[in-house]
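A.,

Following up on our hallway conversation. Structure tokens first:
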């Protein structure tokens, strides 16, 4: 019998960027455990699409703001799949507008619980499930990819709590990579503006492409390509890849939704 496909756990894996990453990994030979905040987000048609690419799909739900939920997610996936994941993609996040004038402890708590604490707790559980004894060099190897934001380099003032939480997660990449070597590699992918929401119209979207150094906006498949590379790049750890058409090279005065209107 052939060996099972390797298993990846993607938080926020049912929609938008998480779904794009899931599609790419399925086509690359991965089985998938896809997390959503609510079970109502499970998408039968999307799961069938992934299965048609050869993936076995496991669905898990939970509120990542709840530390015990985050801590137990890897074990839950292991029990469902009969094996532990060897790739963790921390994609789920929240963002709301706030500024220094409207900053509140409640907003900071919500953003840091989801965007920083949950990925850290998940990474610890992931490493524990694999085993991280530095002397056991023949044990299973794992990889963690944090999905960040290009604004960790040049932050804007419009989403302060969100920006601070992502900056902290960015700072964790090198620290975790050192702490978990050699058994677990930890890297980051920092997307730029990739998927429009109802806040943008087509004309604004085209104008925003023109102010990027590369004069286009990255696609979600570009971020998925970077995750796929890092999932198997056995000599790469502690690195962040910016997939943003060069946006991190510029200091934009506000969030993109307010520009080029």
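Then the amino acids I'd put at each of the 261 positions:
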């Amino acid at each position: 019998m052939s060996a099972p496909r390797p298993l990846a756990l993607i938080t926020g894996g049912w929609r938008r960027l998480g779904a794009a990453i899931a599609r790419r990994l399925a086509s690359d030979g991965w089985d998938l455990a896809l997390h959503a905040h609510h079970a109502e987000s499970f998408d039968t048609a999307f799961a069938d699409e992934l299965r048609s690419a050869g993936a076995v799909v496991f669905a898990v739900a939970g509120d990542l703001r709840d530390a015990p939920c985050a801590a137990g997610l890897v074990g839950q996936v292991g029990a469902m799949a009969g094996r532990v994941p060897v790739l963790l993609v921390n994609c789920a996040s929240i963002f709301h507008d706030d500024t220094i004038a409207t900053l509140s402890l409640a907003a900071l708590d919500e953003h840091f619980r989801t965007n920083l604490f949950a990925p850290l707790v998940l990474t610890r559980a992931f490493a524990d499930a694999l085993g991280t004894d530095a002397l056991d060099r023949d044990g299973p190897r794992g990889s963690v990819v944090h999905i960040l934001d290009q604004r960790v380099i040049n932050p804007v003032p419009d989403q302060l709590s969100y920006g601070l939480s992502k900056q902290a997660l960015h700072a964790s990449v090198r620290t975790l990579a050192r702490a978990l070597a050699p058994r677990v590699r930890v890297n980051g992918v920092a997307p730029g503006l990739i998927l429009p929401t109802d806040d943008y119209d087509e004309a604004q979207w085209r104008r925003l492409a023109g102010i990027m150094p590369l004069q286009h906006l990255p696609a979600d498949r570009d971020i998925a390509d970077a995750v796929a590379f890092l999932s198997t790049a056995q000599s790469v750890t502690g690195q962040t890849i910016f997939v943003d058409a060069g946006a991190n090279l510029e200091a934009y005065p506000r969030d993109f939704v307010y520009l080029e209107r």
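The chain has one domain: 7-195+217-254. Curious whether your intuition agrees with the design.

B.
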